Each structure stands twice: as C-alpha cells, then as structure tokens.
C-alpha cells in the first residue's frame, strides 16, 4: 500500500490580472542601475564586474568622485556617457534588464528600484508562503462570515478559535493545532524574466484622483500565468478540501469588491476588475486584504477601528475623519497608459 496515498496534489495556475509586486528586500539606487533612454529598459549592473572593468580602464578615480558626489542628480547613464562606455560593454556588466513601462520618465530625477523576489539563480518567483497567506485570509473570512454575530475579541484569539482546532495539543489552541497544516503550497515555478516590468506606486483617493509617488518596484506584468503545486493532506480531518478552497476564493473576491473597491471612484483609464475567482497578492496590495478586521467587526465598526489605527500611525493625515472606508487610498500603478490596482490575481485549481 502506498504510504503517501493520503496526499492529493493539484496544479494551481495564478493569472496576474494586474501588476504583482513581492519584494526581495533589495533596493537599487540610481547610481546602481543604467537607464537606457533609447530602448526604455533598465540594466541592473553587477557591481563587482563594474569595479573590475573600471580598474582595467583606468576609470576608478572618476567613479569614486562620482559616487562621493551625494548631491548630484546624475545617474549611472550620465557617468557611462561621460566615460564613453559603449552599449556592448554595458551589456557585459549587466546582471539582468527590466522593461521600464510607465514607471520612469527620461527627463526626471530617478528613484531607487525595489527588486522582486528572486531565487539563487536570479529567476523571479512567488513564494508559496505568500500565496498561502492570501488563502488563509480568504479561509478565515469564510469561517467568520458563517457566524451570525462573531464575538468581538482579540484578533489572535479569534484566529485560534477558527483555525487552531485539530486538538493535537489539548492544553491550548496554539498554531501546532492549525488546520492549515493540511495544505501546503510549493514556491512557484520560475517566472520568465521578460515578464518583469517596472511600476510606480500611485495612491488613488476616494474621489478618483491619482497621486504618483516616488516608489518604483519590479512587478510581474498583467496576463502572466504562474504555476504552483498544491498538496492536501487528507489524513488531517478538516474542511480544507479543494472544493472548499475554490469556494473561499470565489466568495472572498466578491466580498472584497463589494466592501472595499466599490467605495472608490475609478478614473476613466482604470482597468475594471470583477474579482471573480480572484485574490489580492503581494506587498503593494494594501491593508484591507491582509487582515480580518472588516469581516470580524462589520463595515461600520471596522471603518472606525481602522481609521483609529491609521490615525495613530500617520498623525498628520487626519485619518480619524475617515467615515466611508479606511484606509482611504487604493494602491495602484500604471501600465501601458492604464491604471491597475496592485496584486489582483485569478486563481485556478486543477
């Protein structure tokens, strides 16, 4: 008898409906990348290769002066041009290139670039833990939504009530008893490097006014399929079968749209999403999708609670006056002239 017969595997296809950003923690400053204005791409430069090259060319003193001029607005493009370093040489110093998209403007001062998470070979990928975190939120929402009046209590206590129910440790409802032990999600297959673009963060106000910010991120472009393996341990007696997960994804997407997105007036050039079979994934996707305050308290009480949290954290912005929704900005970006909300993904389980 196969000792692993209780493990059932499925293929997950995640289709990006908007740019998706998951940060590696690495940030490239304007003197660490080369913005080719003619081809509209950014070259991420291998620093050690660049230093060796400059030493060979006798340009290391010029480079040191350039790097120590902190107040200079000149980026690496200007330094390379001044030193007459040609395209062929730049290509040899390049770790990888990224399409600029709508993120950079040639005649404006460049910002730093926040890198998308990559594996040891430099391939972009989505960690399985990121996707499982999204599913966790959808599962919790589904469980809470079935209650007529969920008890108002500490959020961690309520998470334990709904998730930590396996009774493997009778002393307390700790994470060792989590029903999420019954599902595991692999890291994604490597994502084609050509599918990575640069995006600029845009805060959208409730009345539909966009505010571009000086934050540039690598992101997966819309329309990209990313694949994972889902494993369900059927020896753990929980509700977490594949049909239940599909139901959570479908219903949470509708709740997300009705409760949060519908509060915003979207500009004419926005891409309108129905959120069917969709989750919101990634570090730029906003506060709403990463907690259970709204499903727990209901919209009216949750707005008051979240606005108080935002007011304590950002004292100058008068979040205490929020009444329609909180947070009161939608995290968006621009791609090919269209406004997208960050992180919207369609999720299919086969």
Question: How is this structure best summarized?
Answer:
The protein has 350 residues and is an alpha+beta fold. It contains nine helices and 14 strands.
Instruction: Note the quaternary state here.
Output: single chain
Main sheet characteristics: 6 strands, mixed
Q: Overall 3D geometry?
A: globular
> Gyration radius, to the nearest Å?
23 Å
Distance from N terminus to C terminus (CA atoms, Å) equals: 26 Å
The number of helical runs is 9
- Number of beta-strand segments: 14
Order of strands, widest sheet? 2-6-9-8-12-13
Helix vs. strand class: alpha+beta
Give the helices and strands as they follow along the chain. EEEEHHHHEEHHEEEEHEHHEEE
Total domains: 2
Which whole number gives the mean pLDDT? 88
User: Helix share of residues?
Assistant: 25-40%
Low-pLDDT segments: none
Strand content: 15-25%
Report on the structure:
With 350 residues, the chain is an alpha+beta fold. The chain folds into 2 domains: 15-23 and 125-349, no CATH class; 31-110, no CATH class. The protein contains 9 helices and 14 strands. The chain has helices spanning 47-57, 60-68, 76-82, 87-92, 128-145, 155-163, 242-259, 293-297, 299-313, and strands spanning 7-16, 23-28, 33-36, 41-45, 94-99, 113-116, 183-185, 196-204, 210-220, 225-233, 278-280, 330-335, 338-341, 344-349. A 6-stranded mixed sheet has the order 2-6-9-8-12-13, with no helix packed on it. α5 (128-145) packs across α7. It starts with 6 loop residues before the first strand and ends with a strand. The mean pLDDT is 88.
